[in-house]
Design brief:
Helix content is about 25%, strand content about 10%. With about 180 residues, it is of the alpha+beta class.
């Protein structure tokens, strides 16, 4: 694949260029705050996550719109909270609706990317996974990153309920289902 930046990859996955898919500049950019200042932001955030403000202490008025906000015409902007159908359509949805599971490895915005934001959101704020993350004294959260970041499986609509896959050292096998 010739894509080298997040917006190149996202254009490949979705079809629209970044000015309609919500990520026109990457891999890092400045997001405007309500007071006119800017905070650094990053393109690598899960599909439904808000703008990933990378400032050590984000401005209280930082942008919380979805990173992947969609617009049929440029520029892609959204009201907050976003109106229905303002997220760029996820490329795995047609496959999961058709009964297929879709897996990705290290794929921009289609896998969990930021432990502090994604783990409580996906597993729940009081889940064992969030508790593991909170108990980890390593500032880089290596164990949580190894267990949850970079691998994603979007399960088919008719699939039995399954938790997202974890790293090989803590994986729980998912029962096979007939095809």
């Amino acid at each position: 694949m010739i894509a080298r930046t997040a917006n190149d990859s996202l254009t490949t996955y979705t079809g629209p260029y970044g000015d309609r898919a919500g990520m026109p500049v990457s891999n890092s950019y400045q997001a405007y705050n309500t007071d006119g200042s800017t905070d650094p932001a990053g393109s690598f955030a899960y599909w439904t996550d808000p703008v990933f403000d990378t400032a050590a202490t984000p401005n209280p008025g930082h942008d919380t719109n979805p990173s992947m906000v969609y617009s049929p015409v440029p520029p892609a902007t959204a009201q907050h909270p976003p109106a229905p159908n303002t997220l760029t359509p996820a490329p795995w949805v047609p496959f999961t609706r058709a009964g297929c599971d879709v897996g990705e490895v290290a794929t921009a915005n289609m896998v969990l990317e930021n432990t502090a934001v994604d783990i409580p959101k996906v597993f729940g704020a009081n889940s064992p996974e969030a508790q593991q993350l909170a108990a980890d004294s390593d500032p880089f959260k290596d164990a949580g990153t190894a267990d949850y970041v970079g691998l994603g499986v979007h399960c088919a609509r008719a699939a039995p309920s399954a938790r997202p896959l974890r790293g090989s050292r803590t994986a729980r096998p998912r029962p096979a289902r007939p095809r």
